[in-house]
Amino acid sequence: MTGRDFFDLGNERGILRASIAATLAIAVLGVGCGLASGSVAVVFDAVYSLVDAGMCLLSLAVASLIRFHTETGKLPPRLRERFTMGFWHLEPMVLAFNGTVLLGIVVYALVDAAAGLISGRHIPSFGLATLYASVTVVVCLAAAWLAARANRTVASEFVRLDIKGWISAAAITGAMLVAFGFGLAVQGTAWEWMAPYIDPVILGGVCLVLLPMPVSTLRQSLADIFMVTPADLQAEVEAVARDFAARHGFSSFRAYIARRGRSHFIELYFIVPSDAATRPLAEWDRLRDEVGRAIGGEGPDRWLTIVFTGDPDWAE
Questions:
Q1: Does 184 share its domain with 238?
Q2: HSE toward the beta carbon, residue 104, CA cutoff 13 A
């Protein structure tokens, strides 16, 4: 595999690999600049990026497992036997882990920022911190633009989350750039007394901005883990089933719907009247195809089960 193939922006794995490489580069630069400049805000930004890269690696592994199961069929026989229903359930678990870890880092840094404001830390090297922030803003904006352009065709939830992360990182680092520039400007002036507080203020501000992101990720992933039915998908599926049952004379139907990451699990049970005419098996299959086309979204990530029964107990 060549370098171009490894970072191919035409597929989900290539986009995530390129994102990981860019994130690691920023993290290494940030740790070096943060330690050299004495800025806790820069160190936090770098550590956050480093952890985010680790989470992205885990996401990439899950995305590969899902792809191998649904598209290529290249899974080892033992894995295929042990996970007959696929690996979709791992996606929300990874996102929940991601949200929990990042939330813990943000809360810890927020406490550290409060302690810094109380104690009044030393003045960091604003020149070096400004250089780091400038380079990082350019890299973040470029990565977000490239990923967004590639995701128009890939349509990956992991990539969409990654794009949101790059945009947020660019905005946050841009704010850091302004603050560090202010720190440079006040040195040697009557406002220099503010310099020791600039770094913890930046850290606290960054934490407050970042806080909703892992919370949102954690909330959505927990909804998927607990298989909370998406209201919009439920309304769409029930409308199709209701119309189908009315047109073909079925007594009623039951719909069971859940989302696990990128996958949609749909089970439909149609109650056939006891006096209904007998139909050949091919006719039942044709009816299943009709429902499947009406629901839409056919692909490797849709799990659709359609059952016709005369006993309502089988549908409960």
A1: no
A2: 7
Rounded (10°) angle between helices 212-225 and 195-210: 20
Residue 5 pLDDT > 60, yes or no? no
Number of Cβ within 10 Å of residue 174's Cβ equals 16
Give how far the C-alpha of residue 164 lies from the chain's centroid of Cα atoms, to the nearest Å: 9
Residue span of the structural domain in which 212 resides: 3-225
Q: Are residues 235 and 270 in the same domain?
A: yes
Do both 131 and 273 map to the same domain? no
Domain stop point among 225, 255, 288: 225
Do residues 51 and 31 touch, judged by C-beta distance below 8 A? Answer: no
The residue type found at 202 is I
Token look-up 């191998």 returns 68
Q: How far apart are alpha carbons 277 and 212 in whole angstroms?
A: 57
Confidence at residue 3, expressed as pLDDT on a 0 to 100 scale: 47
* Residues ≥6 apart with Cβ < 8 Å to 83: 69
C-alpha to C-alpha distance for 299 and 211, rounded to whole angstroms = 35
Say if strands 263-271 and 252-260 run parallel, antiparallel, or are unpaired.
antiparallel
Rounded distance, CA 283 to CA 296, Å?
A: 20
CATH number assigned to the domain comprising residue 54:
1.20.1510.10
Domain final residue, candidates 203, 225, 247: 225
> Does the structure show a pLDDT above 80 at 90?
no
Structure confidence by residue, pLDDT tens digits, 236-269: 999 999 999 999 888 889 999 988 777 788 999 9
- 180 and 297 co-located in one domain: no
Residues 44 and 193 in one domain: yes
User: Residue 50 in contact with residue 24, Cβ under 8 Å?
Assistant: yes
Number of structural domains (the chain) is 2
Instruction: Look at residue 239 in the predicted model and tell me its pLDDT.
Output: 92
Q: Domain check: are 55 and 151 in the same one?
A: yes
Residue 69's pLDDT band (cuts 50, 70, 90): low
> Which residues sit opposite 265 in a β-bridge?
258, 303
